[in-house]
Amino acid sequence: xxxxxxxxxxxxxxxxxxxxxxxxxxxxxxxxxxxxxxxxxxxxxxxxxxxxxxxxxxxxxxxxxxxxxxxxxxxxxxxxxxxxxxxxxxxxxxxxxxxxxxxxxxxxxxxxxxxxxxxxxxxx
Length: 124
Hints:
By secondary structure, this protein is mainly alpha-helical. The protein has one domain. The chain has helices at 17-49, 51-63, 71-74, 77-113, and strands at 7-12, 116-121. It is elongated.
C-alpha cells in the first residue's frame, strides 16, 4: 500500500513588524553597498576608456563653450559617489519604512483575507 507524502496547510496570520523592518534594513543595506560598488566600477571603466571626456567634448561642440556646462567637473568621481551615497541612503530608509508599514497593513487585513496559505509536504 503506497501512501503519498504527508501535507500540512498552514496560514500565516501575523508578521512581527519589527522583525520585518530589521530584515528589510539589512537587505536594503546590502543593496546600497552593491549600488555604490557598481557605480564606482562603472565610473572607473568610463573614465579609463575616455567616455566622459569624449561626451564632454561632444556637449561642448553642440552647446558651445560659453554655456558654462562642464561635464568633467559635474561627473567627477566624488560628485558621482556623493550622489550615489545619497540615493543609497534614501533607498535604505524608504525600503525599511515601507516594509514595516506594509507589515502593519498586512496584519490589519489578515482578518479579512485569511492570511497567506503555506503548504508543507514531505518528500517521498
